[in-house]
Amino acid sequence: MLKDYGLEGHSWFKRLYKHRVKWSTALNNEYFSACILSSQRSESTNHAIGFQASKTTSVTAFFGIFESTVKRWRSEEERKEFNGIRSTPISVYPLTDLLLHVSQVYIVELFRIFEKEFALAMRTRATILPVDDPLLVYRVQPAVSEEGPHHVTYDCSNQLIECTCRNLQVMGMFCNHIIRVFHMPSVGEITSRYILRRWTKFSKTAVWERLLPSDIRRSVANDAINWHRLMLIATNHLITKCHNVVEARTIFEKLCVKANEEV
């Protein structure tokens, strides 16, 4: 288009073309996006909150809607996390070594995605191609489909694998072509380099472990401030009780001397 319409010298079009990877889905298959489109976040937010509010909703009422929505989200998240960590998802297929490993690592939603790809892999044919290379190259073709074939390159020694569909780069999940190739040498476990932490059952645990040292420092400082404030209040109340009674003042003074020595 730049050439056809003579726009090579147009600064705005040149800048737009320079960043084509960011807006052209045909060119961004090298980058992780989880298959999320730019409008999906706002649409999901509108679906979660917008149906309860309107343009006439007051700020107070909207805050109540927002607060109840957040509580519902957190409750649902805690329930899913509890069930996901302490249970193994049931599959319609026999749990092979690979499926069993995935069920133990991935959250339920991602396991279901993997299960669908696993089913598609059962309907494909894999043919090894003769190449002058230590790597293995497979041609994976759906048995009954108009979709074209894809080529999977597999390095057994280093456990490196790549498919021309680029689903692994975009989604961080294995496509059915790679799963089909894994059946050839009976691979029963996904190597750790291909397991995105964000998809695993223990992703939140890892985040808390990373943040724990800084949180401890902050909590210790906050606890000291709160403790100091509470002790001042408690001591002030005790002094107020004692100030009119000589015997009580004597008891309080002795306790202060003793506490100071022990501290």
Largest sheet: 4 strands, antiparallel
Detail the poorly predicted runs. none
Q: Radius of gyration over alpha carbons? A: 31 Å
Strand order of the largest sheet: 1-2-3-4
How are helices and strands ordered from N to C?
Answer: HHHHHHEEEEHHHH
Number of domains: 3
* Shape summary: elongated
- The percent range for strand residues is 5-15%
What structural class should be given to the helix and strand makeup?
alpha+beta
Output mean pLDDT: 82
Q: What portion of residues is helical?
A: 40-55%
Q: State the total count of DSSP E strands.
A: 4
Structure description:
Strands 1-2-3-4 form a four-stranded antiparallel β-sheet, with helices on one face. It has helices at 11-18, 20-23, 40-49, 59-86, 97-105, 108-121, 167-171, 176-183, 203-242, 246-262, and strands at residues 124-129, 136-142, 150-155, 160-163. Helix 6 (108-121) crosses helix 8 (176-183) and helix 9 (203-242) runs antiparallel to helix 10 (246-262). It is of the alpha+beta class and 263 residues long. 54% of the residues lie in helices and 9% in strands. The protein has three domains: 25-50 and 58-86, no CATH class; 97-199, no CATH class; 205-255. The longest helix is centred in the C-terminal third of the chain and has 40 residues, at 203-242. Strand 1 and strand 2 (136-142) form a beta hairpin.
